[in-house]
Amino acid sequence: MSAPATPPSATDEERFVLDMAARLEAVGVPYMLTGSVASSSYGQRRQTADADILIDPDTPGRVVRFVRALGEAFYADANTARAAVHDRRMFNVIDYASAFKADLIVCKAEAYDRQAFARRVRRPLNAALPEVWMVSAEDSILSKLRWAKETGSTRQHDDVVGVLAVQGAALDDAYLDRWAEELGLRADLDRVRAVAAPLMPDDGPGEC
């Protein structure tokens, strides 16, 4: 199958992401875009050749059907995908032509991960493109702070500052505060809020 029609202004990366989303929807695999693709939609755009997609399949068979339907234009391994669902880990899809890569991450069973997936929203990558399932702005912030703490990546903090600066008062601060405490990210959240504060609008809600 092919991705839904997109305007000529769509980038190759956006077309790849929309294609992956459409293919997952076609076989009934619940998903949400996360990582830098999502934070770019909520905050400051950052170019990336990788798309992080969280999935929550009810059976391994749906993911195997997704992989087998990709065809020869993509690299993906059905056995690896099946094992990833069983073990709740990750597998990859790579577009041979563009080298764009999707990391398909199976949703974990922990309380926060389930809550974040339940809060996913329908949202376009940008105003000119079709809607897809995406992590909420708050969970984009929390997931990037968690990843930064695990890896030491400063890029994650930059992405979070961009989301905070653009979204501003539209964010659910009580939700952020609660889960930052639960996840041991209180100090990390305070630091990025301090950096983002001068960049936020003086009044009015941020973008949604």
From TrEMBL:
Which domain of life does the UniProt lineage start with? Bacteria
Under the heading InterPro entries, the entry gives: NT_sf
Name of the molecule in the record: Uncharacterized protein
Q: What is the lineage of its organism?
A: Bacteria, Pseudomonadati, Planctomycetota, Planctomycetia, Planctomycetales
